[in-house]
Design goal:
38% of the residues lie in helices and 25% in strands. It is of the alpha+beta class. The chain has an eight-stranded mixed beta sheet with strand order 5-14-11-10-6-7-9-15, sandwiched between helices. Strand 3 and strand 4 form a beta hairpin.
Length: 302
């Protein structure tokens, strides 16, 4: 946006940009998602928010109503401060919630899945970075004594190290087995998988939980990511490929890549209607077919 200009004594001066109600909503939404404004917390008053953002109270009210429509806030009135929704997991990822980036949507759904006695998670992805990050929260809750599943089964499908990936790949094309882009992806795939496996298997010794973690290799680059939770939820996202530049081994390389942590997740839940139920069922059929047919043993080694 271009700054506004006003004339003072014949000279033009630049006025500071005044935020719109959507920009205020974006900032407050980010605070809620990050935990800076936790569930159940009373928001600052509209007057305080107006002063902080340098806007009119009407702009603040419009912003708060946006967040209320997204089920992130309750009690949005003129007279009292709004409140952050007490059940953010449902607000962020439940039926009817807007699709959100993986970094926001996955962790609360994984945490909810770990409330079951038998936790079953199937994942198809490029590196398992998002899954490893998301499982951190239920692991903390298990160690704090707030969760105690009896059994955990995790299956992960990842691309094989031996294929020519469609992405990430140098724009100029892959340069043999020593290609730095491929080696960087492989190192990340293996490292994240090892962390995921180690953290989950450690629950056997620390909490006596029956844990199984399995990996298999796909003979293709997945254009989508998929998470199946306890047989009742399916979280689906597209890998959107972009062209970007990154330094690898002290070299600036142009590559085609996809930022999986920012991929927008679409949530489907069994029992939330015929379309959702069918999508969950077909997702399981598809995953199991890949697992049992064309996938192969995967070793998390370089």
């Amino acid at each position: 946006m271009e700054p506004e200009h006003a004339s003072v004594n014949g000279r033009k001066t630049t006025q500071p940009h005044q935020r719109t109600h959507r920009e205020v909503a974006d900032e407050l939404r980010a605070r809620i998602r990050s935990g800076a404004l936790p569930p159940g917390r009373r928001m600052p008053t509209q007057a305080q928010l107006a002063e902080e953002f340098g806007v009119e109270r009407g702009t603040v009210r419009q912003a708060l109503r946006i967040l209320q429509s997204e089920h992130l806030l309750t009690n949005v009135t003129k007279g009292s401060p709004a409140t952050v929704a007490p059940d953010l997991a449902k607000a962020l990822t439940g039926p009817g919630a807007p699709p959100l980036p993986t970094t926001v949507a996955l962790a609360p759904r994984i945490a909810s899945a770990f409330a079951a006695q038998h936790v079953e998670i199937d994942a198809l992805c490029l590196t398992s970075v998002s899954l490893t990050l998301a499982i951190g929260e239920p692991l903390r809750q298990i160690h704090a004594g707030r969760l105690k599943p009896a059994k955990i089964d995790v299956r992960v499908l990842l691309p094989s190290r031996d294929i020519d990936l469609a992405f990430p790949v140098p724009v100029a094309g892959r340069d043999g087995d020593g290609d730095p882009v491929h080696q960087r992806w492989l190192a990340m795939r293996n490292a994240q998988g090892q962390v995921l496996q180690h953290n989950l298997l450690a629950l056997r010794a620390t909490h006596g939980i029956d844990v199984s973690v399995s990996f298999r290799a796909l003979p293709f680059t997945p254009p989508v990511k998929l998470y199946l939770l306890n047989g009742v939820e399916s979280l689906f996202a597209y890998y959107t490929v972009t062209r970007r530049e990154q330094e690898i081994d002290h070299r600036q390389l142009e590559m085609y890549d996809a930022e999986g942590t920012q991929s927008v997740l679409f949530a489907f839940e069994q029992g939330a209607g015929l379309r959702d139920t069918t999508f969950v069922e077909q997702s399981h059929l598809w995953f199991n077919a890949l697992w049992e047919t064309i996938s192969s043993e995967l070793l998390l080694t370089t």
